[in-house]
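Handout, tutorial session.
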Amino acid sequence: MKTVLHTSDSRGHANHGWLDSRHTFSFSSYQNPERMNFGVLRVLNDDRVAPSKGFGKHPHDNMEIISIPLYGDLEHEDSMGNKKVIKEGDIQVMSAGTGIFHSEYNPNNDKEVQFLQIWVFPNKQSVAPRYDQKTIADISVPNQLNQILSPHAEDAGVWIHQNAWFHLGDFDKDTNLNYPLKDKNNGVYIFVLEGDILIDNQTLNKRDGLGIWDTESINLKAKKGAKVLFMEVPMHLN
């Protein structure tokens, strides 16, 4: 088993007033050659957007972009004609493919929105752009890892063009479980949203991240109430 630990306070930070963002991996003005990606996981941004503010229209291509709101609402509009609002308990995916323009905006004037923006390199280039969102609160069972993303359209959650699986879990204190990897060639990046956990005797606190590879399974124990995101991804770019 191999691991890489990224503590919460080691992340890049950019505060633009309307946007307060923490970067696990190199992004924009935060450039760290040792923090470029974890396998095909390229971006993990922990964003807070002020009321009535947001990202203007901007382009993407050949990237799988996932947004997971943690608090508040996020309004999305894109060049495919979609205009949607996602909120806590939802997940959104956008396959940028051959190219897309979109904007993200906090539609509320009385509270911020907090969300994770995640980029994954696709295993297919220049696909037709697509958009999807689902409510994952309806499929979430306490004290287990609930699948919210996979490579298969027929599975629970959303799907992307990559051999990747995301799971989200809310755990009570002393919950203990084992996560078997879907693909032995993959690794898992674990991101703690709330609380404290043990991963194979490594303590992780709120907003810490731990990458693990060269293993077939991972053991998790919640030291107290915790919310955790598991991102299983290929370790090599196609």
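The second record follows below. Compare its token runs with those of the first.
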Amino acid sequence: MSLDDLSGAGAWFLLALALGLAELFAPGVFLVFVAFAAAITGAILLAVPDLPLIGQLVSFALWSGVAVFVGRRWYHENPVESDDALLNDRAARLLGQVVTVVDPIEHGRGRVRVGDSVWLARGPETVAGERVRVVAVDGAMLVVEAL
């Protein structure tokens, strides 16, 4: 086996490496499966060096499908557990928080500061600088009440 024999397989292994590195820089738990398929296609090409390009592409497509199917199934059967049930529910995390009114709430509408951002708010007449409690979230607007 010479370096020329590895050129086709080497291209698939190089693609697998590139996809694996791309997964590191843009993690989404998807490219790793396609990288796995490229590596298997490269290994098949080592075993069957005369495999035509169409056979290589079919192998890559089939192994990509298998890898994504197995990976998705594994992730669904083994979810990541968290002690924080509201980890990805920002609106629910705001309920009960005490925030500061930035723009006075007049005629039922104003703006409040939550951390380092400002949200639209609906609630009773309140002057700027006063603190209020978040009681609900309506889309992108917080519903507040006086303390």
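Points raised in discussion: The first strand starts at residue 98 and ends at 106.
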